Amino acid sequence: MARIEPLPKPRTETGEVITPGEGERPRLISGEEYPIFPGDALLRVRSTVVVAARCLIRTDGTVSNCTMVCSDPAFDEIVLQNLQTRRYTPFLFRGRPMDVTYTFPFAIYPPSTAIRPAATF
């Protein structure tokens, strides 16, 4: 019978274990929070589309090494371009800035249908 091993706990470069919730999360300080998608791509959306990219937020606040982990070809490039323009405060662990891997999810919703007034008789 196969044995399931637990995932390794995240550690600092010195081997200290980082527990969930420990440390100060990065905050967006510049760049657009939401990508702007072209209208023609949005018009093809029939149900909610979710895309996500896993990136490294460096101690200088830049975003790099992005990889799409949930992908849609119509939106991937725009998401990646948006993430590269962002700048964050660094992740702080016990007061020290550290590089951190972060997953950025995006939900793209279909355009709302036009609301028509009820027919009058």
Automatic annotation (TrEMBL):
This is Energy transducer TonB. Residues 49-106 form the TonB C-terminal domain. InterPro entries: TonB_C (IPR037682). Residues 1-14 have a biased composition (Basic and acidic residues). Residues 1-25 are annotated as: Disordered.
